Fold:
Amino acid sequence: MPKTRLRLAGALAAALVAAGLATGPAAQAQEHRPTLADLAQRHGRYFGSATDNPELTDSAYTKILGSEFDMITPGNGMKWYATEPRQGVFDWTDGDRIVNLARRHHQRVRAHTLVWHSQLPDWLSSKEWTAGELRAVLKKHITTEVRHYRGKVYSWDVVNEAFNEDGSYRETIWYKTLGPGYIADALRWAHQADPHARLYLNDYNIEAVGPKSDAYHRLAEELKARGVPLDGIGLQAHLALQYGYPATLEDNLRRFSRLGLDTALTEVDVRMQLPATDEKLAEQAAWYADLTEACLAVRRCVGVTIWDYTDKYSWIPAFFPGEGAALPWDERLTPKPAYSALLEALRQRTVT
Ligand code: G3I
Structure:
């Protein structure tokens, strides 16, 4: 049977069991079926999900969040606007809540994110800063936040989305005021504040080999050569069926490994133009399997995180009107073919 057909047959059976719709001895035998995290761990990988504070009151949602994944990323709660809403006044409420929830479920945390151009508080984005002032503001923010979460998080997305599509530096407040050196500084300050956290640069549209991922490759090589504490590159992987699968993903992961870096798929979703059809959902399932297999094929690809796990809380419909259905669980928290394809991909590959 072709790979995709096999995937779909398995997908349907597992989805019925997971949704509690299958009964009888076979279904009962699968009650203790391994989770995505269990299967990823067999490969020495994790399987994670982002989450966000407003969703945490939804107990049906948190039940799956707490059981299916072993890595959690706060979708917003650790960003600058949330953690330093007024200059020098720090608020850990949202981030702590997610860290504590993760701890209760024996999950690790990919912390996100220290230096970004988006979701900055007004006091920061609306003022003209001198380089000296802004450098001090940045150092204080990184040092205070990383110290607060020291020993409690596995990794940090230290700098998020630093490059344009053509591989030039994005003209952010950080780049414009401080020049490209802000990246090395940020990594060094984060390392000083928590020497054990794995430190990442993270971006979207760098899944395939191309100008933007080349820019990361060049920068990473240079940072490593200068002894700057960089541990990994995060490939967000916000994919869309209409733009095609990034066929060079595995090669791309491998070239970062060769630099001595970890890689991770950090914000995976696979959106589509609505309405979702069986055909699109099948293609989406194949993409989820393929990207997971690409990660498993490259030894230093440490894990996969999806950008929340259910369409109920996906960011996509608000940002891309007319698109959605991007995650492995639907809006009623029922697993979709993508979920079963993930299980199957994680079951099949031999350990690398
Ligand atoms: O907090 C306000 C709330 O007070 C207000 O009532 C509400 C009304 O719209 O908005 C709330 O803010 C929203 C915020 O999420 C918190 O929920 C913003 O409008 C909304 O734009 C923001 O979206 C977040 C987005 O980053 C911002 O760029 C998404 O939730 C979050 O998932 C998304 O995550 C990013 C990663 O950090 C980096 N990579 C891309 C990814 C997707 O955009």
Remarks:
- The chain has 15 helices and ten strands.
- Residues 1-6, 8-29 have pLDDT under 50 and may be disordered.
- The radius of gyration is 20 Å.
- Strands lie at 46-51, 71-74, 108-115, 155-160, 198-203, 232-235, 238-240, 262-273, 301-306, 323-324.
